[in-house]
Specification:
single chain; 15 strands; 12 helices; binds adenosine-5'-triphosphate; Immunoglobulin-like; Arsenical pump-driving ATPase; alpha/beta; 2 domains; 8-stranded mixed β-sheet; globular; 38% helix; binds magnesium ion; Rossmann fold; 25% strand; ArsA/GET3_ATPase-like
Length: 392
Amino acid sequence: MRLIIYTGKGGTGKTVNSCSTAIKLADLNYKTLVISADPAHTLKDAFMVPVVGNKPIKILDNLYALQVDPVLELAENYGSVLSYVASIFSKRGLDETLSYEIAMLPGMTQLFSLLKIEEFMRHESFDCIVMDMPASGEALRYLYFPKLVGNIGEKFSGFTGVFSGFVKMFQPFSSFAPIPTDVIQIEMNLLKRLEILSKILTDTKITSLRLLINPDSFSIENAKRALMSTNLYGMNVDAVIINKIFPRQVPDSYFTKWTEYQSTKIEEAKTSFYPLYIIEERFYEKELKGIEMLRENAETIFANKDPSRVFYSDKVFEFVKDGPTLILKIKAPFTNKDNFDVNRYGDYLVIKILDTTGNNIVNVIPLPIATITMKLYEVKIREGIIEVTFRE
Ligand SMILES: Nc1ncnc2c1ncn2[C@@H]1O[C@H](COP(=O)(O)OP(=O)(O)OP(=O)(O)O)[C@@H](O)[C@H]1O
Ligand SMILES: [Mg+2]
């Protein structure tokens, strides 16, 4: 079973490329589901079909689509927990509607689409699931809950440990409200599912994240952050799609400026995301949508390759925590101790490598928040890997 997640900044082409990928997978005879949690119901627009709802609907042979309805999912899976937390706020005099807004943690809607995946994975309903996910990494944080809360099995046997999950976060507000047992049960269930989900998402053979960018600095920066944080969470990013590239032969001074600018950004992206698999996708002369156009796009970007392949399976960065030190390991083949230079600027690390043609390759890597209080202690290169050590 394969899970392919597309993420990237708004408008880069996540939805259309999720749909293209899913069509190609279905054509290759994989039973495929494409999932989106976008409240704007964009799957329907991309496929140009009348409806895509909250149950898988058949689009083509082997191809199903589902639009997660976060409100419904929330009510089904988490309703009583949310009501309980909201009731604590509301008892303190907060308006009830506002209490619900506050009780809703950031990234929770995204989390429900991920939990939906866990459900389909559990039932082995599909060979491939393609997910269209907004760029915020908020939801991924919840995957750490089971680890933070500890062994769930133990909690079932001992009642006392129970109050350490989601609800515990709101306990300081509620010295008096007892936690209802159904809330505890739902929370336990949720933690269990999160634990399974976390295993699915960090299994390189199952899950690949693909970054969608356009040849502009905003979407590249966004994707760099996504690459850093997903690597931190232990997820595998296997490819980058650079979408909306203008064809070079546009004979117009306005577009020549754009194509020249895009070329520099394409080069920057290739260095920044080395050694991930890079796909270049041109800006079509009309809006990319409809099954035929999406299928043609998939044929162009994947050519004869199977989109369910794991295109790259190593980590681009690795953070190793060793007591008070944090070591960042970065792959940099063809680099030796004389041809590179590392500097830190705030929460970015700038690595300059002089390549064989005498050009400087510059890679700017966002640093995790944990390094804010740390100093860059030493830089070493070992077997094609740059090791940067930070210390408190
Ligand atoms: N290569 C392309 N050529 C032409 N049009 C494109 C191309 N890629 C995307 N588009 C168009 O750009 C628009 C945005 O694409 P899409 O909705 O897939 O982006 P998104 O990343 O999902 O956006 P959002 O963040 O809003 O969900 C759509 O109208 C789509 O048809
Ligand atoms: Mg979208």
